[in-house]
Amino acid sequence: MKTWLITGGCGFIGSHLADRLVRAKDRAIVLDDLSSGRADNLPPGAEFVKGDIRDAALVGRLMREADGCFHLAAIASVARSNEDWAGTHAVNLTGTINIFDAAARARPDARKVRVVYASSAAVYGDCPDMPLVEAAPTKPLTAYGADKLGCELHGRVADYVHGVPNVGLRFFNVYGPRQDPASPYSGVIAIFAKAVLEGRTPRVLGDGKQIRDFIFVDNVVDALVAAMRHDELRCDVFNVCTGRSTSIEALARLLAEACGAPPKIDYGPARSGDIRESLGDPTRLRSALGVTAGVTVADGMRRTLEWMRGGAPAKA
Ligand code: NAD
Ligand code: UD1
User: Fold this and answer.
1) How large is the average pLDDT for residues 230-242?
2) To test the ligand 1 pocket, which listed residue (62, 174, 214, 242) has its Cβ within 8 A of the most ligand atoms?
3) Across 3-12, 107-116, 154-163, 276-285, least confident range
4) Mean pLDDT, range 165-191, rounded to an integer
5) pLDDT in tens, 82-91
6) pLDDT score for 315
7) Strands 211-212 and 246-247
8) 110: which residues sit within 8 A by CB, 6+ positions away?
9) Lowest mean pLDDT segment, chosen from 16-30, 204-218, 226-240, 248-262
10) For residues 275 and 289, what is the distance between their CA atoms, to the nearest angstrom?
């Protein structure tokens, strides 16, 4: 039986990963400060430790028990990083360095703990070369994207200086059950779905022509598990995306249609730093990690709506 440390495991993506690892009969230790996650997202059998990834002593202790670490804890909202630059930086970059540092120190004389961490498509910023390949220039537009790029740079330091094998996954727009629909900082699919189910009109920020590559959470878990398993890969980054684009306007219409609601849309001002086009190239995800993100937006949306109708929590 392997032991995995999952930071941010009470959150949306982390809790799906915990499900998968517990189902595989592995031991999952979850470190989370519950700032946006919920302990009741965790499956029975996962071991929950409430704490902060910036707590070096605590992280060090947990890392010593782990065969590998999935580092997902972050303040995952681009909008919040605009509002609280220094505060989000402390978690998103300094917190990640703390994880690498603990992985380096956990077993001084043995193989270092492997770390698979969440980066983001936000590292590409407004790069115009769609679809985005991993070698495309990185020009983040927000503190969130800059900090995720910082994680990748420190991933290099972790490997080259400290011998910590690590892989960063550049998640595109992830959606699915348990993405908190009540938070204003949630992903657009969760926000629109909640609005439509409550009989409200979804509000598109900007002209709605911006595009995203929406990937269903189960396919993201496939990528996390594969990146941990492929230990011949180190100090590398991979897009985690589908290669299919959806505009935000089309998304609002699709959701209304799926709920039998009128296809009405409200428009509001665009977000500062909002990326116009984000579409990933999944070639390396397939060739190196063996993962194909096969769930379509229509199918994933149906599964998300089912979860919401079945009693998604009203409040975080
Ligand atoms: P989430 O907010 O649901 O999960 C993040 C978890 O981290 C939460 O449970 C939160 O309580 C925890 N956390 C935050 N700060 C912490 C701290 N200081 N110490 C311990 N725990 C802390 O977000 P998510 O959507 O599941 O995102 C998971 C990871 O994937 C994040 O790193 C995020 O930046 C990245 N990511 C997400 C998306 C997406 O579309 N959801 C896209 C790209 C990257
Ligand atoms: C998302 C992720 C971020 C990740 C990035 C990778 C969330 C909350 N954020 O950011 O963690 O790193 O993808 O590319 O999942 N919009 C509306 N109306 C709304 C809400 C949003 O029109 O009510 C628009 C936004 O302006 C944006 C698009 O929908 O153009 C997507 O927004 P959002 O879901 O917040 O994701 P990103 O900002 O792309």
Assistant:
1) 97
2) 174
3) 107-116
4) 92
5) 899 999 999 9
6) 40
7) antiparallel
8) none
9) 248-262
10) 27
Q: Enumerate the domain spans of the chain.
A: 3-174+215-243+280-293
Q: Are 274 and 210 in contact (CB under 8 A)?
A: yes
- Identify residue 14 by its one-letter amino acid code: G
Q: Residue 230 in contact with residue 222, Cβ under 8 Å? A: no
Question: What is the Å distance from ligand 1's center to 262 Cα?
Answer: 33
Are 141 and 272 a contacting pair, CB within 8 Å? no
Write down the H helix ranges in the chain: 12-23, 56-65, 78-83, 85-89, 95-105, 143-160, 188-197, 217-229, 248-258, 283-289, 297-309
- For residue 198, which phi and psi values (nearest 5 degrees)? -95, 5
Residue 188 CB–ligand 2 contact under 6 Å? yes
Pocket test for ligand 1, best of 6, 12, 173 (most atoms within 8 A of CB): 12
CATH number 3.40.50.970 is the correct assignment for the domain at 3-174+215-243+280-293: no
CA separation for the pair 174, 30 (Å, rounded):
20
Average pLDDT over residues 205-212: 97
Whether 175 sits among the annotated catalytic residues: the reply is no
**Catalytic residue (one of 117, 124, 144, 175):** 144
- The mean predicted confidence, pLDDT, of the chain is 94
Distance CA 166, CA 70 (A): 10
Residue located via tokens 């031991």: 27
Beta carbon of 187 within 6 Å of any ligand 2 atom: yes
**What distance in angstroms lies between residue 143's CA and the mean position of ligand 1's atoms?**
15
Q: Is 159 left (phi over 0), alpha (psi -120 to 50) or beta?
A: alpha
Among the ranges given (16-20, 165-169, 281-285, 310-314), the one the predictor scored with the smallest mean pLDDT: 310-314
